[in-house]
Design goal:
There is one protein chain. This protein folds into three domains: 47 residues, Single Sheet (Rubrerythrin, domain 2), CATH 2.20.28; 217 residues, Citrate Synthase, domain 1, CATH 1.10.580; 107 residues, Cytochrome p450-Terp, domain 2, CATH 1.10.230. Helix content is 50%, strand content 6%. It has 19 helices and six strands. The strands form two sheets. Strands 1-2-3 form a three-stranded antiparallel sheet. Strands 4-5-6 form a three-stranded antiparallel sheet. It is globular, with a radius of gyration of 23 Å. Bound molecules: s-citryldethia Coenzyme A. S-citryldethia Coenzyme A binds next to loops.
Length: 432
């Protein structure tokens, strides 16, 4: 017997169906609310509202659980292969050997970025935000692949495999191009014989007559960091991709919008803000007390960056994995980063502080990710673009769910108007 909720409003009762997800999470289906009651539901920031049914990722914020297509993140991280996880997130199953090989080949074949696109980068000052440059370059892709970006779901889905491979592979290459452009270095072209991560490191750090050959530990760490960012349910930027995609905008355009949302310091931009916070603590010889005290002021601009989460009321499992990996990677690379010790002390201090404990604020994915990225040589201003490389599979999988949903509708939330009531136009002479 299907479960229903009963809404009592004035002297009438309205039964509303209850939906139950795979893991028992429940929702009251309010799709008929406005038509039957004349009321809309109100949920500022959608923190208590499900915008879709999705088969990609399951989060349990209270118990710190993250699974992609049913596979626990801890198990995927145990065999860190970003391309394998990207395939799983997009296609729903772990690839067999042939599928993994073919997918990897598709990425390698589509790694190069059209030379003409370099002019877009060259239109930016080298000091421009890497995320602004990344979003601009991705939003230009439909101009180079119009046949893949027709803004017609049926046509665009016919070429989905190629479009998805282009998106994942070229976002990675564009990030390396942005790094080279900002440094005033010549672009390094991808090599088809290299793996996804090694090709990225090659395009970032090779010199004209000296190929960069990354240590296996660095490749392993990069696969892990990217894999841990692959998808995360309906976060701000992924919801943006779905919102834009729901207008039948093509995949590249929708991802470009997601990259803009990701750039905010409350979201993907937090990994840069965390390192700036840790560096300030280090430079001031502080023990973090000042930052913790400021963070408790409640102002959004003083928050303890890398802490708290819109869903997790427990440890972000990714933070635990990255935190543990920091020790291993830095030791293997013989790096002694003072910011790691500062981060650990800050974590311990916050986890003992009633303000954080009472609000269930724990480290999130951004708290330690910058330390690993710095250890593998990524400059701080590129950290959020690394998040975008990692999140590309999640954006793609979510766009595909929107594009292939036969009952899908354009996302169009309502509002409660609280502005001025009706009033008549005043001629200039009568205005104060
Ligand atoms: C990501 O959604 C996702 O899944 C995102 C992400 C993904 O993979 O896509 O996980 C990636 O964006 C991780 C989050 C990165 N951002 C940060 O680290 C920035 C710092 N954290 C926050 O600003 C905050 O925790 C958010 C934005 C992450 C969550 O904000 P919410 O859900 O709106 O939380 P809230 O503002 O309702 O906070 C509840 C209380 C408030 O205090 P009171 O009003 O109850 O007194 O907790 C406080 C907040 O002031 N609070 C913090 C805090 N985070 C929340 N206080 C100090 N420091 C913090 N970091």
């Amino acid at each position: 017997m299907a479960k229903t909720a009963l809404l009592k409003l004035d002297d009438k009762e309205y039964p509303l169906p209850v939906m139950t997800g795979t893991e028992g999470e429940m929702a009251i289906d309010t799709r008929t609310l406005r038509a039957t009651t004349g009321h809309i539901a109100y949920d500022q920031g959608y923190g208590n509202t499900g915008s879709c049914e999705s088969q990609i990722t399951f989060l349990d914020g209270d118990n710190g659980i993250l699974r992609h297509r049913g596979y626990p993140i801890e198990q995927l991280a145990g065999h860190p292969d970003f391309v394998e996880t990207a395939y799983l997130v997009i296609y729903g199953e772990l690839p067999n050997a042939t599928q993994r090989k073919e997918f990897g080949l598709r990425l390698r074949k589509n790694a190069a970025v059209e030379t003409q696109m370099q002019k877009i980068l060259e239109g930016f000052p080298t000091s421009a935000s890497p995320m602004a440059m990344l979003s601009a370059m991705v939003s230009a892709l439909p101009a180079y692949y119009p046949e893949l970006a027709t803004n017609n779901f049926e046509k665009d889905l016919k070429n989905f495999d190629l479009t998805a491979a282009i998106a994942i592979s070229k976002i990675r290459t564009i990030v390396a191009m942005i790094y080279r452009y900002q440094k005033g270095l010549p672009f390094v072209f991808p090599k088809q014989e290299l793996t996804f991560c090694d090709n990225f490191l090659h395009m970032m750090f090779s010199e004209p007559y000296q190929d960069h050959v990354p240590l296996p530990e660095v490749s392993h760490a990069l696969n892990l960091v990217l894999l841990l960012h692959a998808d995360h349910e309906q976060n701000c930027s992924t919801s943006t991709v779905r919102m834009v995609g729901s207008s039948a905008a093509n995949l590249f355009t929708s991802i470009s919008a997601g990259i803009c949302a990701l750039s905010g310091p409350l979201h993907g931009g937090a990994n840069v803000a965390v390192m700036q916070m840790l560096q300030s603590i280090h430079d001031e010889g502080d023990d973090g007390t000042r930052f913790i005290a400021a963070a408790k002021s409640g102002s959004k601009s003083n928050r303890l960056m890398g802490f708290g989460h819109a869903v997790y009321r427990n440890f972000d499992p990714r933070a635990k994995i990255i935190g543990e990996a920091c020790d291993v990677v830095l030791k293997k690379l013989g790096i002694n980063d003072p910011l790691l010790a500062i981060a650990k002390n800050l974590e311990q201090a916050a986890l003992r502080d009633e303000y954080f404990v009472s609000r269930k604020l724990y480290p999130n994915v951004d708290f330690y990710s910058g330390i690993i990225m710095r250890a593998i040589g990524i400059p701080m201003n590129m950290f959020t673009t690394m998040f975008a490389i990692g999140r590309a599979p999640g954006y793609i999988a979510n766009w595909k769910e929107v594009a292939s949903n036969p009952k899908g509708r354009i996302y169009r939330p309502r509002q409660i108007y609280v502005g001025p009531a009706k009033r008549d136009y005043l001629p200039m002479a009568d205005r104060k």
